[in-house]
Every structure is written in structure tokens, then in C-alpha cells.
Write a structure and sequence with these properties.
The protein is mainly alpha-helical. The chain has a single domain, classed as Farnesyl Diphosphate Synthase (Orthogonal Bundle), CATH 1.10.600.10. Helix content is about 75%, strand content about 0%. Helix 1 runs antiparallel to helix 2 and helix 4 runs antiparallel to helix 7. The two termini are about 20 Å apart. About 20% of the residues are buried.
Length: about 150
């Protein structure tokens, strides 16, 4: 998982922040790291490369059990669940398998749930930032970074 916690902690220590403030910043980092990981997992299915090929599918090919895969599996028919299990750890996916994965991930309820998870994390991060005892200008910079990372 991507980590935002330690860079924030190091900055807090160097700035002389209290233990309470450092804990808040560590929590902020965990929340942002989780949201970034979910967003990255989703991109693994939806990104188109320079040759026009859809999805890298690296996560499923390497057997990673990500939130998008879990949601697809939970909502899938028995037949599609078998298909998803067969795709796990399969180093090379056929064009047809990639198309089917794209179809499964693009189901509105799955995309909505994944985006909701990211949105919830971003909202939690914003609340933490507003609770910090740093300068308003620093809070604005953090909020800008979050906005840049997570376009909702």
C-alpha cells in the first residue's frame, strides 16, 4: 500500500508538533494511502495504454486481491466467479478475458461503490486536516494536494 504516513510524520517531528498532532497526521497518511491504493487498483483495470490496449491487469495476473476484484467477485454470478478465480495468477490474459474483466468492473454498482470508498476517505482526510493546529495556509496546501490526487 502506498504510504503517506511517514512523510507526514517526519514533517510533523521536524516542525515540533505535539504527539496528538503527529497521531492525527499518521491517521491522515493512512487514509490517503488507502484511497490512493484503491484508485490505483481501479486504474489497473481501466487505463488504456499508448497502443490503445485497455487495462494492464497486473494486479489480477499477479494474484492480488484488491477492492475492485473483491467487489466484482461479490456481485458476480457463479459462472463469473469461476472466471475471476481462473484469471487470478494467470500471467497472460487473452483479449476476450480482458474484455470480460472490463465489462465486470464497469458495472455501475461496482464503480459507484469504489468511488464511494475513495470519496469517503477523501472526506475523512479533509476533516482531519481541518482539525489540525497548523496555519491555514498549510491546511490549504494539503487540501490542494488532496484535490490534485483525487479528482472526484
Amino acid at each position: 500500500m502506498y504510504t503517506f504516513s511517514y512523510p507526514l510524520l517526519i514533517g510533523a517531528i521536524l516542525a515540533g508538533n505535539s504527539r496528538k498532532e503527529r497521531t492525527r497526521l499518521m491517521n491522515l497518511g493512512k487514509i490517503l494511502g488507502r484511497a490512493f491504493q484503491i484508485q490505483d487498483d481501479l486504474k489497473d483495470y481501466l487505463t488504456t495504454n499508448k497502443r490503445g490496449e485497455k487495462g494492464k491487469f497486473n494486479d489480477i495476473s499477479s494474484g492480488k486481491r484488491t477492492l475492485p476484484l473483491l467487489l466484482m467477485y461479490k456481485r458476480a454470478s457463479m459462472k463469473d466467479q469461476r472466471f475471476l478465480r481462473n484469471c487470478l495468477n494467470k500471467k497472460i490474459l487473452t483479449h476476450e478475458e480482458k474484455e470480460k474483466l472490463m465489462h465486470l468492473i464497469k458495472q455501475p454498482q461496482i464503480l459507484k461503490r469504489i468511488r464511494k470508498e475513495i470519496h469517503h476517505s477523501v472526506q475523512s482526510a479533509r476533516r482531519i486536516i481541518h482539525s489540525l493546529s497548523m496555519k491555514q495556509s498549510s491546511k490549504k496546501k494539503l487540501l490542494f494536494i488532496i484535490q490534485s490526487l483525487f479528482t472526484e
